[in-house]
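Protocol step 4 of 6: structure prediction from sequence.
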Amino acid sequence: LLAPPGGRSPARLEQIALECGYTHVLDSKPGRIEGDAARTLSRLAVTAQLALPMLEAWLLGRGTALVRLQLRYSVLDMAKRAFGDGAYQNLRKRLLRDPAA
């Protein structure tokens, strides 16, 4: 299994991973596995702060929980592309240190 750091994946990552001997890629883009032959698998950040009802909603596809997570991922991905990785990481570090920033 290949899990790229920070969820940054080039467009051909699945093909490159297969050529290097990996069988699957773990992607940070939230979603559900579609079909038995999927080579790219979505992963979700499950931490001690995550409420069990939210995890259940993600896994079972209840309500808008997964859609909201996908929207959040898309917005953050656009910010990474707009600012570039370095500037995005610096801004993220500053905001996480001082949530009022």
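Step 5 (inspection) to follow. The chain has a mean pLDDT of 84.
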